[in-house]
Automatic annotation (TrEMBL):
Pfam families in UniProt: FAD_binding_3
Key words of the record: FAD, Flavoprotein, Membrane, Monooxygenase, Oxidoreductase, Transmembrane, Transmembrane helix
Gene3D superfamilies, per the entry: FAD/NAD(P)-binding domain
GO biological process, one term: secondary metabolite biosynthetic process
Transmembrane segments: 6-25
GO molecular function, one term: FAD binding
UniProt entry tagged with the keyword Secreted: no
Protein name: Related to salicylate 1-monooxygenase
Source organism: Phialocephala subalpina
């Protein structure tokens, strides 16, 4: 846009916000600042997974990001299982205990990876110009947004007012920016409790191998059962095993203000009473587990209002049953940053945000809905499927192909770029 820069304020220094900033950094006409309410970079949680769609999105953001990521990511520990997504088996006691449901084989050239969230955050920060020192401001809690048309003003709790051409809300599940888009009291602004919670824990790989054997410990595994399921995978270059164990609460309300609550190993074992040796052996080695409430967002028809646009969990918090929360944040970052790279005037901002909506709203809202169903599938809660393992296997394959393997963010960006050109032409 000539000598006039595009000034972007990024609210939130989580995975989506920093990935988006990395994508903007390759465009010299875009000036950006990240505003984070915490005193430093920090990610909540443990392991996170990416499928090939997430890997492609990283490459679309920055080839350096994808290269750096691979140095820290974990893949299946057995070389012959690198093309395997997960091994699925029945985990609860009974006649089906230990029976393999399916071992999903990804299409040729596809990969599944896992990484500890703090390591992913480090990779992202390392890829930022000057490692983020000049572009990130901490202790900045957003309290108000004032859209004045040509400019938008962010007001922070410390009294600072920041003017920008565009604000990108990457402020997570309790997003202040989302309230601006949909209204503070609107149900669309609030994430909904899904009725499921998840125990989370990390254990040294040596202890995991002693508990369940090398094959189960080092390679991605899921254990299914009625109203519960568990997944395990390696992180920290295979030196730790990440454990996520879901169960249905039977309630539609979460009684705590915090998303996570401390629990004991005894609590964990009690909630998985009646399960087989593999699962109970894993639970017995988890020290100080936490239980996390699983929330997701309702379906919407836009992610922007005026000069403010949502990205990542602020736009589409999802349950983790497809492992697509992080992947969709990176997809958002790839598509929006590259669309903004094609901004030649401030008048292009609205068609860019409309093109972003066309690429992201239906995709992400559909995944949210499908992920809820996937959680029910894993816990034998779908009436017409139940615990018929052949039907479960067929649905797993169909769902993975539709929502992970067959989605190409590069193609989605090309389509969004076409929408942008149509939008620009319509405004001339």
């Amino acid at each position: 846009m000539g000598s006039q820069p595009l000034n972007v304020a990024i609210i939130g220094a989580g995975i989506g916000g920093i990935a988006f900033a990395v994508g903007l950094a390759k465009y010299p006409h875009i000036h950006f600042t990240i505003y984070e309410y915490r005193p430093s970079y920090a990610e909540i949680g443990a392991g996170i997974g990416f499928s090939t769609n997430g890997h492609k999105a990283m490459s679309l953001i920055s080839s350096q990001l994808w290269e750096n990521y691979q140095h820290h990511a974990s893949f299946n520990g057995s070389p012959e299982k690198r093309s395997i997504g997960f091994n699925y088996e029945v985990g609860e006691k009974g006649p089906l205990e230990g029976k393999r449901i399916v071992e999903t084989v990804m299409p040729e050239g596809y990969m599944q990876s896992t990484i500890h969230r703090k390591h992913l955050l480090s990779v992202l920060v390392e890829t930022l110009p000057d490692k983020g020192e000049k572009c990130t401001k901490f202790n900045k809690r957003l309290v108000e947004v004032d859209d004045r048309g040509e400019k938008i003003v962010c007001v922070f709790a410390d009294g600072e007012r920041v003017e920008a051409d565009l604000v990108v809300g990457c402020d997570g599940i309790k997003s202040m920016c989302r309230q601006f888009v949909f209204g503070k009291d609107s149900e669309l602004s609030k994430a909904r409790f899904t009725g499921k919670v998840a125990y989370r824990g990390l254990v040294p790989m040596e202890k995991a191998i002693a508990a369940v054997g090398e094959n189960r410990a080092r390679n991605r595994q899921m254990y299914f059962g009625h109203h519960r399921h568990m997944l395990t995978f390696g992180v920290a270059k295979g030196t730790m095993m990440n454990i996520v164990a879901f169960h249905s609460t039977g309630s539609d309300a979460w009684e705590y203000s915090a998303l996570a609550q401390p629990r004991t190993t005894e609590d964990f074992l009690k909630d998985y009473a009646g399960w087989g040796d593999a699962v109970t052996n894993i639970i017995s080695i988890v020290d100080k587990p936490e239980v996390w409430a699983i929330f997701d967002h309702p379906r919407v028809n836009t992610f922007h209002k005026g000069r403010l646009v949502l990205l990542g969990d602020a736009a589409h918090t999802t349950s983790p049953h497809f492992g697509q929360g992080g992947g969709m944040s990176v997809e958002d970052a790839a598509i929006l940053s590259n669309l903004l790279g094609n901004c030649t005037s401030l008048g292009d901002i609205e068609p860019i945000l409309s093109a972003y909506d066309s690429a992201r709203v239906q995709r992400t809202c559909d995944v949210i809905a499908a992920s809820r169903e996937q959680g029910r599938l894993c816990e034998f809660e779908i009436d017409w499927v139940g615990d018929d393992l052949e039907k479960v296997s067929g649905q797993l394959d169909s769902n993975l192909r539709k929502w992970q393997w067959n989605y190409d963010p590069e193609e989605a960006f090309k389509n969004a770029l076409n929408e942008l050109e149509k939008g620009k032409a319509a405004t001339k």
